[in-house]
């Protein structure tokens, strides 16, 4: 299979592979820098990125802003000229400030999901930072592109389509996720690709489309390219790499997971999510897990109503306290067999 460059705005990645953003702390500067160095696009997740800063429990806001700037700069140093982007969840309380911090730090790309990033063009302004929404349906893509065109006279530099087999928070109902074949999702991908052509023609610029969710090997990549995609996004496979920023215990959970260990959970964020069933999920299913403090992470979160604190659950997991942690994953986590380097994985995907 022949790979082509991925042009994103005024910049180019040598390989059309984007490493998906994973929080809390799973994809920070070490992983993103390694992927970018290999020619792909490394993505840092800003979701509670400063969890290991010394004053996180008393001032999580400042820690996160400080950590965004620190990790973008570290990743770019490791990238040797490769592209480093940032994933910012629209659902975050301090979404706008996270975007601005990433732009200040020199991020090449801002990717936004967990909601429609209606204000993203305004937040990025004239900076040399490309913008990319994550969408799961033609309806969402059409609404957002039309809004950006009308309000900002601007369009996307890249579109990420996140399908129903992705990890973490998902833009589908639980019923849809339990019957993925009924979605006929290939047709949705083609429809989104057709929709973006309207704005390519209007703005006389390419808008590459990258598809993520269940991408595991070359056959998956080839299939997406045949549908018309310009590249792919992988996240789950990058967890089982030496450079991934998560603990070794977290990575081992991926390697040991089987297909039957995957669960669709109800997240405090208000969206369904895909995760590895473990002691924490079983405990959460039995009743509310007491919340000791609020980290003010999600806009619509009410500590008195949610089943558990998602920040604490994700921090516990990334540190290796798995029985008290939430381990998000993609649908193909059960196919991962071993730990490898980012370089080895990229060569396997490109061979």
Any chance you could write out the topology, listing elements then pairs?
Layout: E1 6-8, E2 11-13, E3 17-19, H1 29-37, E4 41-45, H2 60-79, E5 83-89, H3 95-105, E6 109-113, H4 120-124, E7 130-135, H5 138-152, E8 159-162, E9 168-169, H6 174-177, H7 185-203, E10 209-212, H8 218-227, E11 231-234, H9 236-239, H10 248-256, E12 262-266, E13 272-276, H11 279-286, H12 310-319, H13 342-350
Parallel strand pairs: 3-11, 4-5, 5-6, 6-7, 7-8, 8-10, 10-11
Antiparallel strand pairs: 1-2, 9-13, 12-13
Helix pairs in contact: 1-2, 2-3, 5-7
Largest sheet features? 8 strands, parallel
Query: Helical stretch count?
Result: 13
Task: State which percent range the strand residues make up.
Answer: 15-25%
Give the N-terminus to C-terminus distance in angstroms.
Answer: 8 Å
What is the mean predicted local confidence, pLDDT? 94
General form:
globular
Number of beta strands: 13
Q: Record the strand order, biggest sheet.
A: 3-11-10-8-7-6-5-4
Q: Class by helix and strand content?
A: alpha/beta
Task: List unreliable stretches of 5+ residues.
Answer: none
Radius of gyration equals 19 Å
Helix content: 25-40%
Order of helices and strands: EEEHEHEHEHEHEEHHEHEHHEEHHH
Describe the structure.
By secondary structure, the protein is an alpha/beta fold. It has helices at residues 29-37, 60-79, 95-105, 120-124, 138-152, 174-177, 185-203, 218-227, 236-239, 248-256, 279-286, 310-319, 342-350; strands at residues 6-8, 11-13, 17-19, 41-45, 83-89, 109-113, 130-135, 159-162, 168-169, 209-212, 231-234, 262-266, 272-276. The strands form 3 sheets. It has an 8-stranded parallel sheet with strand order 3-11-10-8-7-6-5-4. Strands 9-13-12 form a 3-stranded antiparallel sheet, with no helix packed on it. A two-stranded antiparallel sheet has the order 1-2. Helix 8 links the parallel strand 10 (209-212) and strand 11. Helix 2 packs parallel to helix 3 (95-105). The mean pLDDT is 94.
